[in-house]
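retry 2 of 3: previous attempt timed out while embedding N-carbamoyl-L-aspartate. Reduced batch size to 1 and resubmitted. Inputs unchanged:
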Amino acid sequence: MTSKRLILNPLAALARSCRSVSLVTPARHPYISLAMSDGSATTSFRHRHLLGIEGFSPDEITLILDIAESHVEPNRQPDKKRSLMRGRTVINLFFENSTRTRTSFELAGKRLGADVINMSVSGSSIKKGETLIDTAVTLNAMHPDVLVVRHAESGAVQLLSEKVNCAVINAGDGSHEHPTQALLDALTIRRRKGKLGGLTVAICGDVLHSRVARSNIQLLNIMGARVRVVAPRTLLPAEIERLGVEVFHDMRRGLADVDIVMMLRLQTERMQGSFVPSTREYYRFFGLDYEKLAAAKPDALIMHPGPMNRGVEIDSEVADDIDRSVIRQQVEMGVAVRMACLELLGRDTERGNGPALP
Ligand code: NCD
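retry 2 succeeded.
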């Protein structure tokens, strides 16, 4: 059975299962000042890595969204290449399969002029701690500037970040966090609604297994939105209220007057045992169709991080409704947001390349 407890400190559990090696002295650069990509304002960013939304301030989130916004139009032009990261190396290190997130980071790095390498590692479940650290050490010796990491274990990306000199971006760790997804969702919402604060957002479906939900709940709360989760009891972690959400088990009630309907994929690959009676039954009660959507505001936006299970968590027509669904815009904003994150963490800053290896 998958644990239903809230993952508040995923690292502690994972760290116990891995040997304790300290390869580098963590760089002490808590505060980075830099100019924005359009050369205008100078602002501050306190983070060496992007491991999660937790710990970010509203100003830092706004900074990332503003930089991302500056990439949206250039990304629509025939010549998309910029030189903000020329000479830098980005490694996409994916321990878990992904097409869209990896492609999005790859495009983002290339459009900034960086050299981008993709590495897919299939980990043996018994030795996964060892594999993670060994791989991190090996890659660290090649002096990458940014490591983009996806891993099936919650906390794995943070553990890896403690073993390397370069910046680390979490591209999804287990059911813990997926910060760039929440940022791209925020950019999509802000572009359509003009703000995040004051909106009511319903996050619906498999919250239990969803790192997207966790990152979004945190970001939306930080930015002053009201967050609801709508799901069957079996697909909600215990104590979810502690994250600052209102809980509903009925779609019509949960969607009443919301500005945003954010659907989640039913993550059957993370389920051992039965969490829903059948996908048909699930669709009947929790699948988004026009009838349930009618409870939301008439101009409510429909979102989904993809990949979608059409006919399971969302009706196909609703997903493709160009007046309501912003699912394709989310994909577009993904590249802009990842460019902003790479630029912020991987550019020449006071941080330099961190301490030299012994
Ligand atoms: C999400 C993920 O991997 O967590 N997808 C993605 O980043 N493209 C959501 C999901 O898999 O359902």
